[in-house]
Sequence to fold (553 residues):
Amino acid sequence: MTMKNIKVWAMIGMMTLALTACVKDLDTEPIDKKSTTGFNQDALFTKIYSTLATTGQEGPAGSADIEGADEGVSGFYRVMWELNEFPTDEGWWIWGDPGVDVARTMQWDGQNALVKMLYDRFIIVIKYCNLFLDRADDNKDQRAEVRFIRALNYWYMLDMFYVAPFMEGNSNEYPEFRTRPQLYAWLETELKDLTSQLPATRIQLYRVDQAAAWLLLSRLYLNAEVYTGEAKWADAQKAADNALKCGYTLHTTSKTNKEGITYTAYQQLFMGDNDINGAQNEAVLLVYQDGNYCRTYCGSQFAIAATRDGGMVPWGCSANWKCFRSSPQFVYKFVSQTAADTIKADEYHMREYAKDDRAILCSYVEGNPNTWKLSGGMAGDFYASWACPKFTDVYSTADSLAKPIGSDSEWADTDIPLMRIAEAHLTKAEAMFRQGDVSGAMNEINTSVRARANAKPLESLDEMTLCDEWSREFWGEGRRRTDLIRFNRFAGDKADANAYHWEGRGNSNAFKQVEQKYNWFPIPSDDKNVNPNFKSQVVNAEGALPYGDGYEF
Fold:
């Protein structure tokens, strides 16, 4: 038995759960047509947490939550990650899955398969949460935690859509649509309350406490100007400070195996034993994964397999899809273009060239007949830019890379650090910068995330450097789109017309102007057509956009 298997108790409810309540869809067709009259509070509580990565009752496929969707793709973490990464400067998805082509090049509409899967996932999880809150007993901790998971899903809805269906209770009525300012106001009130209602410290490793509410509240305030038109930098700084007082700390201890390979503290955040190697003390919200007891194509298995080919350095499990690589624009955040042309290093040696532990990139593996290059240009080629194997199933306690000690040879154990306390440090720094305290912001960055990464301290700080620092710390974790929008570098006439180009915007140095509406995703056309409440948003005094969100249906 591996150390990971001590977590099996937490998954029993999920793996054996036959969801025993009516969870009809909000529209004419139910997402989940399985319904009976029973109610199992503990099972549903576990199920709600499990929705952060899993897709159904059996895993990795079978008895899916959402009928008609590709279960291997439709999980919360995977679809959220794809829509927040594909259209950005961080990487390129090689495969041509449904919806991917237009997601990579920012041309989606209300028919996009990825958008519909994510929207449906948000809807069903919010309904699970409302059902729980409607029928559960007065277990204060469970109720507060479910409210947080609901708020987390609503924050993603706020961030990724322009209007959103809102339902706070368990009802089969068509939901009303709320504008961004309206949903923002509800989230602010809800999260403020949860900062006192949640447990002061987490009851169990995979459950949330007050730090999660403070951190999500700081994220809400950090992006307030995008959502409401009014900046809330001081509030963002205060909420981040409160999160930093909750006991979570940056993981800073490296480890060296018997072969002489050093696993940096940053690498350990994304390794197979990140629940016990010290990295768990940085993870404010850690999503359970296990090769035996929690198999899904939408969690860390996806994050690991997508970035590997069979000739790379061992990564702890056998799955290798070679379908996602970095972009040249991302590589140049760590090394200059001139230097990049000559560097040959795998993910354990690239940091020596980049002088930054966060550069978990691969340009060369001895014995691999394939050569990574920096050609870019939307090439459907895994080797057109460096590999980006940030997540791995290797255990930091393993003596050898070639001899992993995980639960299963194919399926990953690596938990997903969905929220890390490092975010509070960068949120605090950006809030200080926006308020004019540039030296204070620079000191916050230098003494926290850059110190942990063994990176040279910044000597100056401007908007571009700050935006890139977010990418260096959180690349490949499903948040790049949000940060680019906040810095006005994603879509619309405020985006930088010269300095910010990436593959999805064409092959020339000229910036491809993208309409403002691509700063959010459309409500799926099916829902627009059946929900009469959406039609009332067509003439919207607060949004003043045709069709409610700017997209035809």
Remarks:
- Residues 201 and 209 are 5 Å apart (CA to CA).
- The longest helix spans residues 113-135.
- Confidence is low (pLDDT under 50) at residues 1-36.
- The chain is about 35% helix and 5% strand.
